[in-house]
Design brief:
Layout lengths: L1 H44 L22
Length: 67
């Protein structure tokens, strides 16, 4: 009788832990989706940085680091 009661309690604890993990994962996924949508909106609102945009036909500058 006591063993059955302990197993039932253990199963209840495991069930609660699994429910908590599932709820945490769901909340994390919702937050990630919300963050991605927000980042998309920010990227659309912000003009591109002209210093970071690659230009065609550019050449790499040579630096003389020996002197």
């Amino acid at each position: 009788m006591v063993t059955e009661m302990l197993m039932t309690h253990a199963e209840l604890v495991i069930q609660n832990a699994l429910a908590f993990v599932a709820a945490s994962r769901s909340a994390r996924e919702r937050d990630l989706e919300r963050r991605e949508k927000l980042l998309e909106r920010i990227q659309l609102m912000r003009p591109p940085n002209r210093y970071l945009v690659k230009t065609r036909g550019g050449e790499q500058l040579k630096l003389d680091l020996d002197h």
